[in-house]
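Input.
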Amino acid sequence: MSIPPEALQKVLQEIEMRVMQSQLELTSVRQQIAQKQRDIRLTDLTMKELKDIPPSVGVWEGVGKMFLNVPITAHIARLDKEKNETEDQLEALKKKLNYLETTYKNAKRNIDDILGHSQ
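Output.
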């Protein structure tokens, strides 16, 4: 059973579009992962520096156009919460990256199969 050339061309174009879309999404997700990793490192460094300061000292936290003096323990707790949220987002991005890589590989394999069988 032979597939008409027009149908084969249409299927090939759809798969190529999927490959290009997957490549774009992969690049975007990799950039987001790198940014989240930088954010985590920065938060870790900030928390390390703040833990060296005595707990009786307050820190200034920006709120809109003004600053509030907050206890250092509250600031460290907020940073820890932000770090945990960022780590959760990083894990979700890694799962998305795995899915996109699988989609990309499958689409490339489909193109190779179509081109291999059509000749």
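The radius of gyration is 24 Å.
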